[in-house]
Each structure stands twice: as C-alpha cells, then as structure tokens.
Amino acid sequence: MWIWSKLSGVQWMDAWEDRFHGNPNAVISRLKTQKTIRVEVYTDTEAEAQEIKKLFGGSIRKLVHKNWALIKEPDRAPIRIRSSLIITGSRDDGAVDKLTKEFPGRHIIRIPADMAFGTGDHATTSTCIRMLVDIAKEKDTTPWDMLDLGTGTGVIAIAARMLGAASCHGMDFDPQAVTVARRNVRANHVGKINMSETDVLKWQPDRQWPVIVANMFSTILQQAFPVITAALEKDGHLIVSGILRDQWEETREIAHACGLQFEKVIIKGKWVTARGGHC
C-alpha cells in the first residue's frame, strides 16, 4: 500500500473535495492551524501513487505494518436519476445485472472510482444529469446533440447518449480526465462520443450545439461565458454547475453581460446548478 499526500491552503478545500469526491481512498484533513489542509490518497501500487503525483505534485511513501486487506471500498447506493437512469460505482458485473433486473427500462451507467477521480456522484453532476433528463424529454423526437465542457469522468456525455443525443463531444483540459472519460465510454458500450483534451479558454468553436453542459469551477466558467455564448444555438439549452453559493450572483451577472440568462436555479448544499439559454 502506498500513499500520496499534499499540503494545500484551506481555501482550496472545495476544489480538492470536488476532484476526489466518491473516491473511497481519499482523505482530506484540516490541520491545527486551520489554514492548511492535507490531501491524501491511498493506492495499491507505487505506479498509481506516482500518477497522482505527476498530476498534482506532492509526495508519495510506502506504508507498512498495516492489515490493508481489511480495507475495502464501501458500498455506495446507486443514484436514481428521474425514471430514466441508474448510476452505480460498482465494479461487480453481478451487481450491475441485479440493477438491470431491479429497474427494467432504465439505463445503467457504471462509473467506478478512479485513483484521481470519484464516481461522478457529486451533487453538481447528478443535478446536471437530472436537468439533462428534462431537456431530453422536451426534445422528444427532435434530433439533438450535446457539448460537455469539463467532462471529468464522462458521465454526463454518456448519460446524454443514453437519453437520445445523436452524438456528444466532451472536453477537458486535464489529459488524465480525458483518459478516464474514454475508458468509461468504452466500459458503458456507448458510441458517437468524442473526448478531447481542450482548454475551453483557448478554444474557438466552429459550430453551435443545441445543448451545452458546463460543469466547472466558477472562476473558469466566468471566463468561458463568451465562448459558450458563441457555441450555443439561438434557442439552445445551457446547463451550468460547479458554482459555489457565494459565487452565484457574480457568476449570473457575468453570464447576463455575455447574453445568457437562467430560468431555473437549484442549490444543493454549497453548490449551485442552473439551466438557461440566450437572453
């Protein structure tokens, strides 16, 4: 057993929680000074620990004299999205088969925890998918495709294809995220999903989409609104998330200045998800 660890300012706790949400091997501790946190991830191999270090810096060390065989991934209840989807983090084929029988007619999405990523069950992600289900029902027989900005695990793009999107394009600036997303696409046996390593702040869209989901931190989202406005069809649907409650008003005002408005806003804990489109 190996452990990767890194010290960080307490102001970045939300970012680290979001990055490793759903990963049962991740631990975030606030130190006595209350100004610093320690982020740790336990791995089975040195290679896994080195991969996280490559992404985020920090240090690794080997742990000894512990009965690590007793440590196992905790059971997480599957997430039910409306009457359309079930998202599970289980790696057990039998568990997935059981869900298929228990919930006939629903699509089953498998997103197991990764060393550098969670299961995709964060409040922001699940709320985005619920809004996406509603849009898919409104679309009914109208053809549509989707752009997924900040794709992470790829779960939103996978959900969109299962809900009827003709195709999806997922983007993330993190190469590891793109690798994980592509793996999840293959594992869920869905096609017509393109994943690309793209910095949205440097990206210039060459077309427009009827549906865009942008699930990323508000500091990036605010800078990305001009390009999102350009990429969204005139009557298109936009879902944004990854926004902290105390950053929502500022984010909404910047969006409005870029020609965007939101008619539905959902707050879950400290996170905000909103649905809208062009003004």
Keyword list:
14 strands, 31% strand, 33% helix, seven-stranded mixed beta sheet, four-stranded antiparallel beta sheet, alpha/beta, Alpha-Beta Plaits, 8 helices, Rossmann fold, 2 domains, 279 residues
**What is the global morphology?**
globular
The fold-level CATH name of the largest domain is Rossmann fold
- Beta strands, count: 14
Mean pLDDT: 89
Alpha-carbon distance between the two ends = 53 Å
Instruction: Determine the strand fraction and express it as a percent band.
Output: 25-35%
Tell me roughly what share of residues is in helical segments: 25-40%
Q: Which parts are unreliable, with pLDDT below 50 for 5 consecutive residues or more?
A: 66-72
Give the biggest sheet.
Answer: 7 strands, mixed
Main sheet strand line-up: 10-9-8-11-12-14-13
Give the name of the CATH architecture of the largest domain. Answer: 3-Layer(aba) Sandwich
Number of domains: 2
* Superfamily (CATH H level) name of the largest domain: Vaccinia Virus protein VP39
Structural class: alpha/beta
Broad CATH class of the largest domain: Alpha Beta
Q: Report the total helices.
A: 8
State the order of secondary-structure elements, H for helix, E for strand.
EHEEHEEEHEHEHEHEEHEHEE
Supply Rg: 19 Å
